[in-house]
Specification:
Length: 423
């Protein structure tokens, strides 16, 4: 390679010498080419997302923006005559706190909530500790056994109630709200009252304590009228009850409760609506799947409820693993119920004499129950008349080998829910 280079250089020099001796020397022009190069440098800059906070009472019609995460900070009332609209896909994360500082959203009498989610875009109310983001159906860092991180949702209406007052007071103060707060009143005489719409709404990780042994339910309905629409509601991981109905006449379809600390579905104070298609999944902390109370002010009040198409899934690690308790002159119909996952101590109770009387008189009826009877138990023994410790099973219940053999129970329409995402 060195030799070849040398010969090339020598030849080049001879050519230059020849040119230099020429009579007409050539004109040499020098051309300068300028090349412009654009360099684009990408720099990543962290920008803190804006915070959208609800921390005071809602006193005028308000619509939230579903494209951002909202923070509920403290006890917030939707006032009388005001509508809060929550679009499909909205996520609300609540701060913690106990007592009067617990974060809770309360729709007062005369107020309305229009929360119309969809199966693809449910409305989710959870804790600020939840890492769920806009567009997601579930976060990754909390589960159904994380409870008490905030309060819950309370909806109050003007329909009938029959509470603890022996005089039969028309209105009551809802549990969870101090007695001196007027917006905590519920009840009245307008059974067609409307508190708005709740569809495809999931409430998660609530039940903060507001006093000794006094926690907020996941969703509380107090005196809510049948002008209100309730469909596809979920409560996950609540300290107290999942969903509770204090009086009222509102109807509800497609309710799922998973991992509550007390009762999954609680009926009280002469509620007389229809609840259709309910799935209850117990965890180790739960109490009853169903707690059904009658009119506290007197068992002579005839306001029958209907509860139908129900599946209750017990938990072997639950020391109580109770199925249902009927108390205070419970008055209504419970039909098409599937129960499985029980332990030998699981039972359905008629609590006291007024409940036995309701059953004997045909004012509390049971139809088409199917039970996977656990080892060490009997079908009749599960249905316990606690007054005289006898069975009240008179043919309405059937023993089946497994849940796969069931012909009754809830239809699983809950793929949209937290439970549906995790199972």
């Amino acid at each position: 390679m060195k030799i070849k280079n040398f010969k090339f250089i020598a030849g080049s020099l001879s050519a230059l010498a020849f040119i230099a001796c020429s009579e007409d020397e050539p004109t040499v022009e020098y051309v300068t080419n300028t090349v412009t190069e654009t360099v684009v440098e990408t720099v990543e800059v962290e920008v803190e997302a804006p915070t959208y906070v609800i921390d005071s009472d809602i006193t005028e019609d308000t619509t939230l923006d579903a494209s951002v995460v909202w923070t509920l900070d403290g006890r917030v009332f939707v006032k009388d005559g005001v509508t809060l609209t929550i679009p499909a896909g909205t996520i609300i994360k609540a701060t913690g706190g106990t007592g009067t500082n617990a974060s809770v959203l309360v729709v007062a009498q005369g107020g309305k909530i229009e929360a119309a989610g969809t199966a693809d875009k449910p409305i989710i109310m959870t804790s600020v500790a939840d890492d769920i983001e806009v567009g997601q159906l579930a976060g990754s860092n909390l589960d159904q056994n994380v409870r008490g991180l905030w309060g819950g949702l309370i909806v109050l209406g003007k329909a009938h109630v029959h509470g603890d007052d022996p005089a039969g007071a028309v209105t009551q103060q809802i549990e969870g709200i101090p007695a001196d707060v007027a917006e905590g009143l519920y009840g009245g005489s307008d059974d067609s009252d409307s508190s708005g719409t709740l569809t495809y709404v999931s409430v998660r990780h609530g039940g903060a304590e507001i006093g000794a042994d006094n926690e907020i339910n996941g969703i509380t309905f107090g005196g809510v009228g049948n002008g209100t629409t309730l469909d596809n509601l979920e409560v996950v991981g609540n300290v107290d009850d999942g969903v509770e109905f204090f009086g009222g006449s509102v109807n509800a379809t497609n309710i799922i409760v998973w991992g509550q600390g007390d009762d999954a579905v609680d009926i009280d104070q002469a509620y007389d609506g229809t609840i259709d298609n309910v799935m209850i999944i117990q965890e180790a902390a739960g109490d009853h799947g169903l707690e059904i109370d009658g009119p506290k002010a007197g068992a002579d009040v005839n306001k029958p409820f209907t509860l139908q198409n129900v599946t209750i899934i017990g938990n072997a690690d639950n020391a109580k693993n109770a199925i249902a308790d009927f108390r205070d002159g419970a008055n209504g119909t419970v039909k098409n119920v599937l129960v499985y996952g029980l332990t030998s101590s699981s039972n359905v109770e008629l609590d006291k004499a007024p409940d036995v009387t309701r059953f004997t008189d045909g004012e509390l009826t049971f139809t088409a129950w199917e039970v996977v009877v656990p080892e060490g138990a009997t079908l009749d023994g599960i249905f316990d008349n606690k007054v005289d410790d006898t069975t009240f099973q008179n043919g309405f219940a059937t023993s089946i080998s497994s849940a796969d053999a069931a012909t009754v129970g809830a239809t699983n329409v809950f793929s949209w829910s937290y439970y549906g995402q995790k199972n």
